[in-house]
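Kindly inspect this chain:
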Amino acid sequence: MGSYRVAPAPGLAGEVTVPGDKSISHRAVMFGAIARGTTRVTGFLEGEDCLSTMRAVRELGVRVERPGPGEVIVHGVGLRGLGAPAGTLDMGNSGTAMRLFMGLLAAQPFDSVLVGDESLMRRPMERAATPLRAMGARIATTDGRPPVRITGGAPLQGIRYEMPVASAQVKSAVLLAGLNAQGRTCVMKPSGAACLPPCASNADCTDGSKCRAGRCTWSAPQLCTGEATPVACFLCCLGRGTGDFSDADFAVCDRTCFPPEPAVTNASPHISLRFPGFPGFRPLTRH
Protein backbone atom coordinates (compact mmCIF):
# COMPACT_ATOMS: atom_id res chain seq x y z
CA MET A 1 0.00 0.00 0.00
CA GLY A 2 1.34 3.42 -0.93
CA SER A 3 1.91 6.25 1.51
CA TYR A 4 0.73 9.85 1.20
CA ARG A 5 2.01 13.04 2.78
CA VAL A 6 -0.35 15.98 3.20
CA ALA A 7 1.03 19.49 3.75
CA PRO A 8 -1.02 22.54 4.80
CA ALA A 9 -2.06 24.98 2.06
CA PRO A 10 -2.56 28.74 2.41
CA GLY A 11 -6.07 28.42 1.00
CA LEU A 12 -8.20 26.90 -1.71
CA ALA A 13 -9.64 28.51 -4.84
CA GLY A 14 -10.39 27.61 -8.42
CA GLU A 15 -12.82 25.41 -10.36
CA VAL A 16 -13.92 21.87 -9.55
CA THR A 17 -15.77 19.58 -11.94
CA VAL A 18 -17.99 17.39 -9.82
CA PRO A 19 -17.82 13.66 -10.67
CA GLY A 20 -20.81 11.97 -12.26
CA ASP A 21 -23.68 10.59 -10.24
CA LYS A 22 -23.22 6.93 -9.30
CA SER A 23 -26.91 6.02 -9.25
CA ILE A 24 -27.54 7.49 -12.68
CA SER A 25 -24.36 5.94 -14.11
CA HIS A 26 -25.50 2.44 -13.07
CA ARG A 27 -28.89 2.91 -14.66
CA ALA A 28 -27.60 4.59 -17.81
CA VAL A 29 -25.52 1.52 -18.67
CA MET A 30 -28.37 -0.87 -17.84
CA PHE A 31 -30.94 0.99 -19.92
CA GLY A 32 -28.44 1.34 -22.74
CA ALA A 33 -27.89 -2.41 -22.65
CA ILE A 34 -31.58 -3.26 -23.10
CA ALA A 35 -32.21 -0.45 -25.59
CA ARG A 36 -32.24 -1.06 -29.32
CA GLY A 37 -29.35 0.81 -30.93
CA THR A 38 -26.37 2.76 -29.64
CA THR A 39 -26.57 4.83 -26.47
CA ARG A 40 -23.90 7.42 -25.73
CA VAL A 41 -23.44 8.55 -22.13
CA THR A 42 -21.29 11.41 -20.88
CA GLY A 43 -20.66 12.31 -17.26
CA PHE A 44 -20.30 8.61 -16.39
CA LEU A 45 -18.78 7.98 -12.96
CA GLU A 46 -15.78 5.74 -13.49
CA GLY A 47 -15.76 4.32 -9.97
CA GLU A 48 -15.46 0.62 -9.20
CA ASP A 49 -19.17 0.19 -8.45
CA CYS A 50 -20.27 1.51 -11.84
CA LEU A 51 -17.48 -0.37 -13.59
CA SER A 52 -18.87 -3.56 -12.03
CA THR A 53 -22.17 -2.84 -13.77
CA MET A 54 -20.31 -2.23 -17.03
CA ARG A 55 -18.43 -5.51 -16.74
CA ALA A 56 -21.64 -7.37 -15.94
CA VAL A 57 -23.49 -6.15 -19.04
CA ARG A 58 -20.50 -7.14 -21.12
CA GLU A 59 -20.78 -10.64 -19.66
CA LEU A 60 -24.40 -10.60 -20.84
CA GLY A 61 -23.31 -10.01 -24.42
CA VAL A 62 -23.47 -6.22 -24.62
CA ARG A 63 -20.62 -4.34 -26.28
CA VAL A 64 -19.52 -1.33 -24.25
CA GLU A 65 -16.86 1.18 -25.30
CA ARG A 66 -15.05 3.86 -23.29
CA PRO A 67 -13.79 6.39 -25.85
CA GLY A 68 -12.72 8.99 -23.27
CA PRO A 69 -12.89 10.01 -19.61
CA GLY A 70 -16.47 9.93 -18.38
CA GLU A 71 -17.73 8.70 -21.76
CA VAL A 72 -19.44 5.40 -22.43
CA ILE A 73 -20.95 3.97 -25.62
CA VAL A 74 -23.38 1.08 -25.09
CA HIS A 75 -24.43 -1.00 -28.09
CA GLY A 76 -27.83 -2.17 -26.91
CA VAL A 77 -29.17 -5.62 -27.70
CA GLY A 78 -32.82 -4.95 -26.93
CA LEU A 79 -35.01 -5.83 -23.98
CA ARG A 80 -34.87 -9.55 -24.77
CA GLY A 81 -31.46 -9.71 -26.37
CA LEU A 82 -29.27 -10.37 -23.33
CA GLY A 83 -27.30 -13.60 -23.43
CA ALA A 84 -26.45 -16.16 -20.77
CA PRO A 85 -23.19 -15.35 -18.97
CA ALA A 86 -20.34 -17.85 -19.09
CA GLY A 87 -20.03 -17.81 -15.31
CA THR A 88 -21.11 -15.90 -12.23
CA LEU A 89 -21.71 -12.15 -12.49
CA ASP A 90 -19.40 -10.30 -10.11
CA MET A 91 -20.95 -7.14 -8.68
CA GLY A 92 -17.80 -6.17 -6.79
CA ASN A 93 -18.80 -4.06 -3.81
CA SER A 94 -21.97 -2.67 -5.38
CA GLY A 95 -25.24 -3.46 -3.66
CA THR A 96 -27.01 -1.20 -6.15
CA ALA A 97 -25.76 -3.27 -9.08
CA MET A 98 -26.74 -6.56 -7.46
CA ARG A 99 -30.28 -5.51 -6.54
CA LEU A 100 -30.96 -3.86 -9.90
CA PHE A 101 -29.64 -6.86 -11.82
CA MET A 102 -31.98 -9.06 -9.78
CA GLY A 103 -34.87 -7.18 -11.37
CA LEU A 104 -33.32 -6.95 -14.81
CA LEU A 105 -32.52 -10.69 -14.98
CA ALA A 106 -35.64 -12.03 -13.24
CA ALA A 107 -37.53 -12.71 -16.50
CA GLN A 108 -34.60 -13.62 -18.74
CA PRO A 109 -34.64 -17.11 -20.29
CA PHE A 110 -31.31 -18.14 -18.74
CA ASP A 111 -30.02 -18.77 -15.22
CA SER A 112 -27.81 -16.26 -13.43
CA VAL A 113 -25.74 -16.22 -10.26
CA LEU A 114 -24.78 -12.88 -8.70
CA VAL A 115 -21.79 -12.64 -6.37
CA GLY A 116 -19.59 -9.89 -4.97
CA ASP A 117 -16.63 -9.15 -2.79
CA GLU A 118 -16.39 -10.19 0.86
CA SER A 119 -18.33 -7.16 2.06
CA LEU A 120 -21.16 -7.49 -0.45
CA MET A 121 -21.55 -11.19 0.30
CA ARG A 122 -22.62 -10.23 3.83
CA ARG A 123 -25.31 -7.74 2.82
CA PRO A 124 -29.06 -8.48 2.85
CA MET A 125 -30.78 -9.09 -0.47
CA GLU A 126 -34.23 -10.25 0.60
CA ARG A 127 -35.76 -6.77 0.51
CA ALA A 128 -35.37 -6.89 -3.28
CA ALA A 129 -35.98 -10.64 -3.65
CA THR A 130 -39.31 -10.61 -1.79
CA PRO A 131 -41.34 -8.40 -4.18
CA LEU A 132 -39.67 -10.03 -7.19
CA ARG A 133 -40.82 -13.44 -5.96
CA ALA A 134 -44.31 -12.00 -5.57
CA MET A 135 -44.13 -11.25 -9.31
CA GLY A 136 -43.24 -14.87 -10.02
CA ALA A 137 -39.45 -14.63 -10.14
CA ARG A 138 -37.49 -17.67 -9.00
CA ILE A 139 -34.77 -16.15 -6.86
CA ALA A 140 -32.82 -17.87 -4.10
CA THR A 141 -30.47 -16.30 -1.57
CA THR A 142 -28.24 -17.86 1.06
CA ASP A 143 -29.77 -16.99 4.42
CA GLY A 144 -30.95 -13.76 2.83
CA ARG A 145 -27.52 -12.90 1.45
CA PRO A 146 -25.53 -13.53 -1.73
CA PRO A 147 -24.88 -15.50 -3.77
CA VAL A 148 -28.17 -14.71 -5.47
CA ARG A 149 -29.35 -17.46 -7.82
CA ILE A 150 -31.92 -16.57 -10.46
CA THR A 151 -33.64 -19.35 -12.37
CA GLY A 152 -34.52 -18.14 -15.82
CA GLY A 153 -37.73 -18.50 -17.77
CA ALA A 154 -40.13 -17.48 -15.01
CA PRO A 155 -43.26 -15.70 -16.31
CA LEU A 156 -43.69 -12.50 -14.33
CA GLN A 157 -46.94 -10.84 -13.33
CA GLY A 158 -47.21 -7.14 -12.59
CA ILE A 159 -47.94 -6.23 -8.97
CA ARG A 160 -48.90 -3.30 -6.81
CA TYR A 161 -46.19 -3.13 -4.19
CA GLU A 162 -45.94 -0.80 -1.23
CA MET A 163 -42.42 -0.76 0.14
CA PRO A 164 -42.22 -1.18 3.91
CA VAL A 165 -39.13 1.05 3.85
CA ALA A 166 -38.35 3.56 1.10
CA SER A 167 -35.60 2.17 -1.12
CA ALA A 168 -34.50 3.41 -4.53
CA GLN A 169 -32.80 0.09 -5.21
CA VAL A 170 -35.88 -2.01 -4.47
CA LYS A 171 -38.10 0.33 -6.45
CA SER A 172 -35.75 0.18 -9.43
CA ALA A 173 -35.48 -3.62 -9.27
CA VAL A 174 -39.26 -4.06 -9.27
CA LEU A 175 -39.80 -1.56 -12.10
CA LEU A 176 -37.08 -3.19 -14.20
CA ALA A 177 -38.78 -6.56 -13.71
CA GLY A 178 -42.09 -4.90 -14.57
CA LEU A 179 -40.86 -4.21 -18.09
CA ASN A 180 -41.10 -7.96 -18.75
CA ALA A 181 -44.19 -8.64 -16.64
CA GLN A 182 -47.78 -9.14 -17.73
CA GLY A 183 -49.91 -6.21 -16.65
CA ARG A 184 -49.04 -3.03 -14.82
CA THR A 185 -46.45 -2.83 -12.07
CA CYS A 186 -46.94 -0.15 -9.44
CA VAL A 187 -44.45 0.65 -6.67
CA MET A 188 -45.39 2.92 -3.79
CA LYS A 189 -43.22 4.49 -1.13
CA PRO A 190 -44.32 4.20 2.50
CA SER A 191 -47.17 6.50 3.46
CA GLY A 192 -45.87 9.94 4.33
CA ALA A 193 -42.48 9.49 2.69
CA ALA A 194 -41.04 12.45 0.83
CA CYS A 195 -41.60 12.31 -2.90
CA LEU A 196 -39.63 14.33 -5.46
CA PRO A 197 -40.33 14.93 -9.15
CA PRO A 198 -38.78 12.36 -11.52
CA CYS A 199 -34.98 12.70 -11.73
CA ALA A 200 -34.90 15.27 -8.92
CA SER A 201 -32.59 13.06 -6.89
CA ASN A 202 -30.65 9.81 -7.10
CA ALA A 203 -33.65 8.02 -5.63
CA ASP A 204 -35.83 8.85 -8.63
CA CYS A 205 -33.52 8.45 -11.60
CA THR A 206 -34.87 5.07 -12.69
CA ASP A 207 -38.37 6.47 -12.97
CA GLY A 208 -37.09 9.52 -14.80
CA SER A 209 -35.25 7.34 -17.30
CA LYS A 210 -38.44 5.46 -18.03
CA CYS A 211 -40.35 8.70 -18.38
CA ARG A 212 -37.91 9.84 -21.05
CA ALA A 213 -38.46 6.51 -22.76
CA GLY A 214 -42.18 7.23 -22.66
CA ARG A 215 -43.00 4.15 -20.63
CA CYS A 216 -43.43 5.35 -17.07
CA THR A 217 -46.03 7.53 -15.44
CA TRP A 218 -46.03 9.35 -12.12
CA SER A 219 -49.09 9.94 -10.03
CA ALA A 220 -49.67 13.03 -7.94
CA PRO A 221 -46.60 13.55 -5.73
CA GLN A 222 -48.46 12.85 -2.51
CA LEU A 223 -49.16 9.29 -3.68
CA CYS A 224 -45.47 8.55 -4.24
CA THR A 225 -46.20 6.07 -7.01
CA GLY A 226 -44.08 4.86 -9.92
CA GLU A 227 -45.53 2.63 -12.61
CA ALA A 228 -44.14 0.47 -15.39
CA THR A 229 -45.86 -1.49 -18.15
CA PRO A 230 -44.52 -4.19 -20.46
CA VAL A 231 -42.75 -2.83 -23.53
CA ALA A 232 -41.60 -4.30 -26.81
CA CYS A 233 -38.36 -2.36 -26.90
CA PHE A 234 -36.46 0.70 -25.76
CA LEU A 235 -34.85 3.07 -28.22
CA CYS A 236 -31.26 4.24 -27.89
CA CYS A 237 -30.53 7.78 -26.79
CA LEU A 238 -27.85 10.34 -26.07
CA GLY A 239 -27.56 10.39 -22.29
CA ARG A 240 -25.81 12.85 -20.02
CA GLY A 241 -25.10 11.89 -16.44
CA THR A 242 -25.38 14.57 -13.80
CA GLY A 243 -22.79 15.64 -11.28
CA ASP A 244 -23.43 14.33 -7.78
CA PHE A 245 -23.73 17.17 -5.30
CA SER A 246 -22.64 14.95 -2.41
CA ASP A 247 -19.23 14.71 -4.06
CA ALA A 248 -19.00 18.51 -4.00
CA ASP A 249 -19.21 18.54 -0.21
CA PHE A 250 -15.47 18.07 0.13
CA ALA A 251 -14.66 21.17 -1.90
CA VAL A 252 -17.38 23.20 -0.20
CA CYS A 253 -16.18 22.18 3.26
CA ASP A 254 -12.53 22.81 2.42
CA ARG A 255 -13.28 26.20 0.94
CA THR A 256 -15.35 27.16 4.01
CA CYS A 257 -12.64 26.11 6.44
CA PHE A 258 -9.65 27.32 4.43
CA PRO A 259 -10.39 30.49 2.43
CA PRO A 260 -7.49 31.73 0.28
CA GLU A 261 -5.27 34.43 1.70
CA PRO A 262 -5.01 37.37 -0.75
CA ALA A 263 -1.49 38.17 0.45
CA VAL A 264 -0.36 34.67 -0.51
CA THR A 265 -2.24 33.93 -3.70
CA ASN A 266 -3.66 35.92 -6.59
CA ALA A 267 -6.37 33.33 -7.19
CA SER A 268 -10.04 34.15 -7.13
CA PRO A 269 -11.48 34.05 -3.59
CA HIS A 270 -14.09 31.57 -4.79
CA ILE A 271 -14.40 27.93 -5.73
CA SER A 272 -16.59 27.33 -8.77
CA LEU A 273 -18.41 24.01 -8.97
CA ARG A 274 -19.26 22.60 -12.39
CA PHE A 275 -22.02 19.99 -12.52
CA PRO A 276 -22.12 18.25 -15.92
CA GLY A 277 -25.72 17.71 -17.02
CA PHE A 278 -27.10 19.26 -13.86
CA PRO A 279 -30.93 19.49 -13.94
CA GLY A 280 -32.07 22.88 -12.75
CA PHE A 281 -34.64 21.61 -10.27
CA ARG A 282 -32.26 19.41 -8.33
CA PRO A 283 -31.56 20.83 -4.84
CA LEU A 284 -28.29 22.72 -4.32
CA THR A 285 -28.32 22.91 -0.54
CA ARG A 286 -27.11 20.47 2.07
CA HIS A 287 -28.39 20.35 5.63
In short: The longest helix spans residues 22-34. Helices lie at 22-34, 48-59, 95-105, 126-134, 168-178, 205-212, 249-257.
